Amino acid sequence: MGRVLVPPRFLASAMEASSSFVACDDDVILASSMKTGTTWLKALIPCIMNPNSGGECSDDDDDPLTESHPNMLMPSVEIQIYGENSTCSVSDMPSPRLFRTHLPYPTLPETIKTSTCKVVYITRNPKDAFVSLWHFLNTFKTAEEGPAPIDEPFELFSNGVHPFGPFHDHVLGYWKESLKRPEKILFLKYEEMKTDPRGEVKKLASYLGRPFDKEEEVDEVLWRCSLERLKNLEVNRKGFDPWVGAPKSSYFRLGVVGDWKNSLSEDKKDRLDEITSMKLEGSGLEL
Ligand code: PAP
């Protein structure tokens, strides 16, 4: 897998997924680098694709989000499907199947690229993605240990040592492909979703071939998938993700654009901004 860094315990399953997963034409694949707002999409996409179960105007009883953490609704190809404790069988999944992946574009299973399945990519300002990751990693620390100092993870992130490959390379891989094949990859930014959630969710639904008929449906889906609602659902408040071992609640934190300001020094901000402008130069992408 080239120089892509995969957490050691997921290396075998990531390689297996990369070489063995066979996509169907009507699959939807959600791709992202870590901590870019994927969980919002893990809720939105199932809601849009299955409007009769928790989508438009149905009550909480029919809403899969009240029963399952969003990680369950869009299982990860490299961790949940091919991982050691896999409980998901791809062949039993009803169509259209919904998956997510953190694999970088070059290592995506070939049939994801060659079939007509749709890929939704979400990204975010690297400073916010890094700070979100740091908070997430701290949820593995005990109260006695306290949060890890930010310097070391910052050095690693800045040097491209990041789960599933350097952040900027990950984004650029999908960005370049989305320019070549906009019908294949919908490229979304977390900041734009926060600024114009209605517009972005309508764009997402149209791309998925499930445009909304009524404005009320958009409101309903946005409410069902809102951070405030998901954070407070019983199913997301207690227990641990069985694959990664993280508290289920750790996928829902602040959701604020620019939260990096509360954790990064001016020096760190300048360093990451410099790396970002150097990496993205000439790509037409701004983060
Ligand atoms: P993952 O890579 O482990 O799947 P991911 O969901 O991409 O994580 O990132 C988590 C971020 O999305 C958190 O951001 P924060 O740390 O800056 O707060 C989390 O709060 C945010 N998030 C999760 N669910 C939602 C949602 N429904 N709406 C908006 N933001 C959300």
Present as ligands are: 3'-phosphate-adenosine-5'-diphosphate
Percent of residues in β-strands: 5-15%
CATH-assigned homologous superfamily:
P-loop containing nucleotide triphosphate hydrolases
Classify the secondary structure makeup into a structural class: alpha/beta
Give the CATH architecture: 3-Layer(aba) Sandwich
Can you tell me the overall shape?
globular
| Highest-level CATH class | Alpha Beta
Query: What is the averaged pLDDT score?
Result: 92
Q: How many structural domains does the protein architecture include?
A: 1
Largest beta sheet: what is the strand line-up? 2-1-3-4
Helix-strand pattern: HEHHHHEHEHHHEHHHHHH
General description of the model:
Keywords: Transferase. With 287 residues, this protein is of the alpha/beta class. It is built from 15 helices and four strands. A four-stranded parallel β-sheet has the order 2-1-3-4, sandwiched between helices. It is globular and about 50 Å long. The structure holds 3'-phosphate-adenosine-5'-diphosphate.
Short key terms for the protein model shown above:
287 residues, alpha/beta, Rossmann fold, four-stranded parallel β-sheet, 15 helices, transferase, P-loop_NTPase
Set down the secondary structure blueprint.
Elements: H1 8-20, E1 28-32, H2 38-49, H3 64-67, H4 70-73, H5 77-81, E2 98-101, H6 110-114, E3 118-123, H7 126-138, H8 151-158, H9 167-180, E4 185-189, H10 190-195, H11 197-207, H12 215-224, H13 227-232, H14 234-237, H15 266-280
The structure holds 3'-phosphate-adenosine-5'-diphosphate.
What's the gist of this structure?
Helix content is 45%, strand content 7%. The chain has 287 residues and is an alpha/beta fold. 3'-phosphate-adenosine-5'-diphosphate (PAP) is lined by residues 32, 34-40, 43, 128, 132, 135, 225-227, 230, 251-255, 259.
